[in-house]
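Justification of resources, computational component.

The compute hours requested in this renewal are based largely on the per-chain cost of generating structure records like the one below. Each record pairs the submitted sequence with a full structure-token output. That output is archived, and it is also reused by downstream analysis tasks.
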Amino acid sequence: MVELDFRKNPGILSNMVDVMADGVFTVDAQGHIVAWSAGAARITGYSSQDVVGQSCHVLEGQTCKGFSKLTEFLENPTPYPWGICNQECKVLGKDGRELYLYGNVSVLRNEQGNVVGAVGTFTDLTSFILSNEKIAVLEEQTRSRDAFQQLVGKSQVMQEVFRRLRLAAQSDVSVLVTGESGTGKELAARAIHALSSRKDQPFFAINCSAIPETLLESELFGHVKGAFTGAIRDKAGVFQAADGGTLFLDEIGDTSPLLQLKLLRVLQEGEIRRVGDERAIKINVRLITATNKELKQALACGDMREDFYYRIRVFEITMPLLRERREDIPLLTNHFIDVYSKIYSHSVTGMAQDAMQHLVKYSWPGNVRELRNAIEHTFVTVEGDYLTLLDLPSEIRLPAYQTSTSHKTATSPVSSELEQERNRILSALRETNGRKLEASKLLGISRVTLWKKLQKFGIHYEPKM
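The structure output for this chain reads:
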């Protein structure tokens, strides 16, 4: 029979420790490794000869804190229950791999109660952590398949936009974002910045058409005191403010050829001159521009410098019209419903089918911005928790009542009758506190007819307690 009395045969205990899958080690009071099990060697790649006598910091790396917590624990184990520290940490293996470990360390004390060292064990969680990280990445990709930063869309054209935005974010190439007003050009620029190496640096957006030409140069480059009437002090421009980050210039086609020349200098030389200043200032800014105009026409008539045009259009991204991606309208609608439900603290669960059909069929001259405004409009008129056709702006819902032979003025009485009928139903429901049988009697219709009308108008009335 094998002798299992560890006091008579301590080698048995050592062998048992070495066959354990977990790593086991001991350190002295200064945090130097005294013993290192075979399991610890298997996990980290470091043999006992590599680490015994070394500081417990030996497993640290640039992004790995190793056993750094151990030194703090040895100096002050009091805050830890029963003198045991449970800790998850990341260490650097001998082969350079980052390893995720979970272990616990217990202090060792002498007869006088002084800390003389510690004994610890650790388990390798690397494969578990990495596999869960991969799952998290896949889940995030699945969640974001219909969204990219603040842009929303599952259509093929939007997936191509998302692809080009990712490509643009991988370098500092000059990007020109084109598309009609309301298509999301600034959101595209923000997405590029958020995914780029400059994401932790400033992002500034300037609408060139919103600032008079005489002030735009000062706004962009800054000025020195006395440069012009009213320049009572030095002022830094947005180029300096955005140094290290990204500057987005919208409506770039509205700038003059003279200002384009100065912007071209910034792109080529990486420096600016403040208005009235002879000194050049070095800056490091990624420039993204946008326009809703056809710049080739501006080239032809001399409003756009050719050298500037090709310098800002190294990589072009075109934002599609909303009517070119109608399959995204329900997705965008539900997104905006969620947004405004939070803003207005009014929980809306959905939209009536006929209302959604009209959103999909509408031409959307104002693109996504117009859709967003239309959904916000519905939160002003909605009754209950469901949006209906009558909650939509008139320019969207009125075409539903037109026929090929009707005149524009003929739509008003029809829409007015529908609104009056809906209001009568709502009034009856309020008066009867949502009791549909009593409401139908009040309206002089059957309960089945009332139910059909509730479905038609998308009315979901909840009784008030």
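The radius of gyration is 34 Å. The chain has a mean pLDDT of 83.
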